[in-house]
Design goal:
With 348 residues, the protein is of the alpha/beta class. It is built from ten helices and 18 strands.
């Protein structure tokens, strides 16, 4: 009897220890799970705050949209190319948009999206775009102020993001291409990219120390990139070196371009979840250059001092220069002006 009681006591104590250990393991498991959920919650909250922080500071105003083709260039059966051009106010802006516009005038089934890094619409740009007869969307999409303070500011990102949002809402198929206003384009490029199924790539001339940035192709597949600035980028390409199917973009709702200077192309392409095998090499398997990253020499718009009233063509010319953002006149400040006649200078 006493032995049985002892056995029962030992058994009860043993089972009690097991129950106690089980409870400890359960408590540890629950504690670990709670900690993981808490960490994930705070990560999610912080991401949400960052997203809201950026989205609330992104200002986009659609200045004008025109689907009319004054060139009569539209052709049945051709995909529309959405040609996205980020731009910003400067002395050369009108000249560079004019050069690009005269190239695009020859391209059928194209919609030009011009996104200006400006807080308001510019009458000069609107007038310029209307003159080309190209279907276009003109928007003001300034860079959020917090990014302007950075030493290396991500220029053009707010403009491209605004353009992609417009495309997501308004496009029905087609091809997206980022064409900066200081680039030069061969008309063959548009024939090449129009058939893009997912993401196509091709060389860009006048880039970096190598003078070119290009995908490297072997047996018809992209196997790497030839670029003098790789910086551990998976896709070491220039912004002008790829095109994206709009349908493919639509199937990647989280695809976006981040505000990270130097890595805009790489991170955007990563967000599209494209693989090397899926890239479509264009321009004769990436052996031809059909686009160049030309750069106009930048110079500040001058202020010109005039001490006399003008009664010649100069009066209207100066008004045109100010309208185009190429210069301004003043009676009290600026560089000294003069007019030459018969080899003699006359101060104005």
């Amino acid at each position: 009897m006493l032995k049985n009681l002892k056995r029962n006591a030992v058994s009860t104590a043993f089972h009690g220890k097991i129950i106690c250990l089980n409870m400890r393991f359960q408590n540890m498991f629950l504690f670990t799970m709670m900690m993981m959920i808490t960490v994930l919650y705070f990560v999610w909250i912080s991401q949400g705050k960052e997203t809201r922080k950026i989205s609330t500071r992104e200002y986009v105003f659609t200045c004008h949209v025109s689907f009319e083709d004054g060139r009569n260039k539209n052709q049945d059966g051709l995909q529309t190319i959405y040609f996205v051009t980020p731009t910003y106010p400067r002395r050369e802006q009108a000249a560079e948009l004019t050069r690009v516009g005269h190239t695009l005038m020859h391209v059928p089934n194209l919609h030009w999206i011009v996104a200006d890094d400006n807080s308001s619409c510019n009458d000069m740009i609107l007038k310029l775009l209307k003159n080309f007869g190209i279907p276009f969307t003109y928007m003001a999409s300034p860079m959020p102020s917090e990014y302007r303070k950075l030493k290396a500011s991500p220029r053009g990102v707010s403009n491209r993001r605004a353009a992609m949002n417009w495309i997501r809402k308004n496009a029905n198929g087609g091809v997206l291409y980022f064409g900066d206003d200081d680039n030069t384009f061969d008309l063959k490029l548009f024939e090449e990219i129009r058939g893009t199924n997912k993401v196509s790539m091709f060389p860009v001339g006048l880039i970096g120390d190598f003078g070119v940035s290009a995908p490297v192709v072997k047996n018809g597949k992209v196997v790497g990139f030839f670029d003098s600035w790789t910086a551990k980028r998976k896709f070491a390409v220039d912004m002008a070196g790829f095109a994206v199917s709009v349908n493919y973009l639509m199937h990647k709702p989280n695809a976006t371009m981040p505000y990270k200077a130097g890595y805009e192309e790489d991170l955007f392409l990563r967000s599209l979840e494209i693989t090397y095998d899926e890239i479509e090499p264009k321009a004769k398997l990436c052996s031809q250059v059909l686009v160049w990253h030309t750069q106009t020499k930048k110079k500040n718009a001058p202020t010109m001092k005039f001490t006399t009233e003008l009664d010649t063509s100069l009066k209207e010319l100066l008004q045109e220069l100010e309208f185009l953002g190429m210069g301004r006149s003043s009676k009290s400040e600026g560089i000294k002006t003069f007019m030459s006649s018969d080899g003699r200078d006359k101060v104005l």
